[in-house]
Structure formats: C-alpha cells, structure tokens
User: Fold this.
Amino acid sequence: MNFRLIFQVAKRHLLSRRKQTIVAALGVTFGIAMFIAMVSFMTGVDKMLEDTMMSASPHIHIYNDIETKTEQLVERKFNGENDVNKIYHPKPSLLKQGLKNGLQMVNYIRKDEAVWGVSPMVNSQVFFNFGPHDIHGNITGVDIMAEDLLFDISSKMLEGKIEDLLSSNNSILMGSGLARKMNLHKGDNITITTPAGVSKMVKVAGIFQMGMAQVDDTRSYASINLVQKILQKDKSYITDINIKLKVLEDAKQKALDYYKFFGYRADDWETTNATILVSIKLRGVITYTVSITLLIVAGFGIYNILNMTIYEKMRDIAILKATGFSGKDVMGIFMTQALSIGVVGGVVGLILGYVISFGISKVPFHAEGFLSIEFMPVNFAVKYYIIGMVFGLGTTAVAGFMPSRKAAGIDPVEIIRGK
Amino acid sequence: MNRALHIENLVKYFYEPEPFQVLKGLSFTINKGEFVSIVGKSGCGKSTLLYVLSTMDTDYEGQLEINGEVLTGKTKDELSYFRNEHIGFVFQFHYLLPEFSSLENVMLPALKLGKYSKEEVEHRAYEKLKLLGVEEQAKKLSSKLSGGQQQRVAIARALINDPTVIMGDEPTGNLDSKNAQNVFDILKDLARTYNQTIITVTHDLEFAANCDRIIEMSDGHIVRH
Assistant:
C-alpha cells in the first residue's frame, strides 16, 4: 500500500468538504474536552475528599470492641447429646475496657519497620456543661506531639497552638464545631463530666478544625494524663492506638497481622471509611459513563459524515477501483479520513479540556469545614489525557471502520454502468 | 507473442430480476495494436462483455487472458494491481476526480503503481496531456473543464501506465460530433503511431466503421468478428 498516496487522496477529500470535516472534528473535540474537564474536576474532588479523610483517619485503628461472645461457657461444658442449653439474650460482662498492656503494644508497634507513626490514646465520652445544657462530645487523651505527627494538627489550629496543651495539665483543644456551639474561645473555661459522674473544670487552650463535621463537632483533645485522671484509671490505661504506615497499601495486611497478634480489633482505613470510598467509586462510574457517552455521540457524528461522504463519492470510489486501487486502498483512504478527524479533533479537545480544567481550578471555592481549599479542586493527571486520546481515537476508528469497509466493498461496475 | 487479449468460451448469467444468460460462450483473440469496436443493439451484452474483459466483473465462466496472463480466478486485490498496470479506462461520462487538477488525475494511477518517482510521474503525465493537446489545462481542477477536455484528460489518464489495452465504454457517447471526431482521431492515432491496443464499445456505427475490426454481438452471441 502506498501510504503517501492514500494520505494525499484522503487529505484532498477532507479539505474539499471543509465544513463537514470541521463539524465532525468538533464532535470529537467537545467529547474529549468534556471528558477531560469532567474527569479532572471529579477526580480533583475525590482527591480532596480522600485527602481530608486520610488527614483525619489513621491507617490502622486498634481498639477493644465491645462484643458478646456467642459461645457460652455452659455450652463448652455441657454439649453432649442429652444436654439442652438455653440462654436467652446474653449480654457482655463487665470486662476491663481499654487495651491490656496497651503501652507495651505501642512500644512493640513503634519498632515495626513498616510503621511511620503511632499514637496511643484514651478516649471517653463526656458532657460539656454549657449553662443549663449538657453538650455531648468526646475527649481524647493523646500524646499531642505523636498525634500531630500522624494528623498534622498544628496546621489545623484556628486558635492557639498545640504546644499550649503541654504547658498546662488542665487544658484541652476543642473542635471548631463544638466550640462554636458553646461560644468558646481560647482561654475560656468549661466543665466536663464523664459518664461515671466525675466533673472537672478545664481551660480551652486552642481550637482546631479537621474539615470533617463529625470530628469537629464532637472531638476535643487533652493530655493522656488528664483523661486517665477524670476516668479514674491508672497510668497504663489506654483505649485506642492509631497507626500510620509508611506504605498506605499495606494497611489491610498489617491490620490483620495486628489483630492476630494482639487479639484486639484492628480496622484499616478502608474499613473505617467504607462509605466515603463507595461514594468515590460510584462517582467514578458516573463520570466515566457520561464521558464515554459523549465520545460515542461524537463517534456517531463521524460515522454519519463518513457515510454521507461515501454516498457522495461513490463515483470517485468506482473510478479509483477501475484505475487500480484495491479495496484495501479505498478502505485506507476512508480510515485515514476518520483517524485524521479523530487525531485533529482529539488534540484540540485535549487542549480545550486543559483550558476548561484550568478555568475551573481558578474558580474560588470556600466551603464550610474545608480549611485548605481556596479554589475548585482539579486533578491535572496526564493519565486522563492519555485515556481521553485513546478513547477518542478508538471511537473514531470504530465509527470509521464500518463506512470504510462499505466503501471498500463497492462494486465499480454497478456504479459505472449506473445500475 | 502478438496476442494482447484472449477469451475462451465466456459465459455469464444475470440473476436479477430473473436468471438470464447474457453471454453465451464467447471466444476470440485480439492482437496487439488492434483498434477494435464491439457493436450491437442495446441489451445484446456488449457492455457486459467489456466489463468482464476489464477484470472488474469476476462473476463469469470461461477463461480470460490478457498479455499472456490468465486472470480467471485471481483475487480482487491481484486484479486491482493488474488493472493498474495493464488496463486503461475511458468512460462515457468522463469520471475524473473533481477535487484534483487534470495533472493530478492523470498522475494518480501512476503514483499507485509506484514504478516511477513522483517527479518522473509528473513529467510523464505532462507529456501525456501534451500528446492529447490539453497541457494548458494541467493545473485546472478537472471539474472546471469542458466535456471534450475532460474526455481527453481521461484518455491521458488511461495512457499513463503504458497499458496493454485501453478500454472505452462509449468514449464519444457524451460528446458533440466535433469533439467525438476529435477523440476518435486521437484513439486511432494512438493505435497507429504507438501500436496501442484499444477495445471500445459503441453504438455509433460510423465510429465503428473506421476501426480496424468490428466485433458485432447479438443476443449474447458474436455474429461477426
């Protein structure tokens, strides 16, 4: 096959019907541009949500889950054929809450090569006494420097500094939602009451904002000591261990290892954030469905225009065949036209898509709870430009193939004899 | 060997609308340099015969041989290649590609053949246009030419690969008598001067009478040759 000649004929055909060619190419352009813009924006949003999620969620969370053993002692003892055991609605016994040998666990985990940071904590529900009201919330006793290493709390402080927590034994850092509800600011005092009825006056040393309402509206940080004290527990008492790993993907396996080793429940981040991950996944499906539909519509445009061209060019095709062009050559001519439309429309589409994405990324966006976001989040990953181009060329190739094959199969005798 | 084209016991049927035998066992030989006219009444099968000879119609029985090569049973792609090299076409309606200039129209089959470089092809195409007296129109779009000029460009295109046979389907049928005479003279001259084999289908009896040889058909048979 003489590619230069085929290309030349194809080019002449395209240029002689400039308007139709441009319309067909524009179909591809808009399809790909919208694909790029949509995917960039959607994955930008996903990435932002994921980042926010990851910034507030440990890779692995180890805690003592309250569960009722389904196997009862009596069943272990009396399980013969003549025994009938019936226990109605068993409830958990009052076991020691918290992690047994928690601090030793922390030391063990800290030595693990794969671990980037560990933060032990003591969690408790508390009531904040706000005038006549009791506001429900959590108090988390942490080694604030370890917690900061994991969750970068210092960058999320609206008021005060995390170091303020170290200087006084009676201070707490409070979530922004909680603070707003109670009209609290740095330096204000508030009384907290534990479920066991112990009350303590503490000072608000700072206010933080994680960007997730369920955290900001309920959580407050204190030193481990303070929380142990109000819970009337000893110095070795801890309830949760948060871990960040060096490699995020190891979380699932590591969590399983820890569960087997310690016997306590260990959730990896995917389990903890299952709902967010599902919504990200579903949004991905929607994005790709819409984008691919756009490209298919563009493909139909090309199909139509090529089909029309072939009807118009019947005589020319017959002539080319009569003078020695084979079916393959004719097919090549029309495939070249389709792919040229695809390439030109596609490249312009990539550029236009980039321009639109860039425009979106400059739209100011201030959302309650999202500290770090000033503009619409857009993801400029090269991957999507490659996918867009591949899909664009794929649809043009498919759309061009059927008319081209038809052109290749035209019988010149029928056309020339006018049957 | 002096034999340009030979057919042996050629049979062809049409199946639409009803089975019908168009060509009923034709055999003849055409020698190199002959200027042959196939004549006959409408529907006698003369055009059908020409398209079988042209290798474009492959749905026949019997045997076709051009330039010593048996073409029956070859694939469409092989026949395309053969046509490109050995057969030149002139049709009743000029059938030039409208987006291309006269020169480009003439060049296309030669570029397809790929025997010469582009510069040589252009030179040769220009020579052919000159031979036919339309070199002035070389750069014009073919759709801008008059009927007679278009037909001459079409003949130039048919000649570009120095084919074994030129085939014409009513090559003068769409021209006024002056242009028709002109085109006839050109064909005659090609046969005389360049020993070019030419086969045309025509119902112009005056045209036919001036040829070297007449093959007259009637009802699917050859009645005179």
Remarks:
- The two ends of chain A are 30 Å apart (CA to CA).
- Chain A has 16 helices and ten strands.
- Residues 31 and 179 of chain A are 48 Å apart (CA to CA).
- Chain A has two domains: 3-55+276-416, 60-68+95-267.
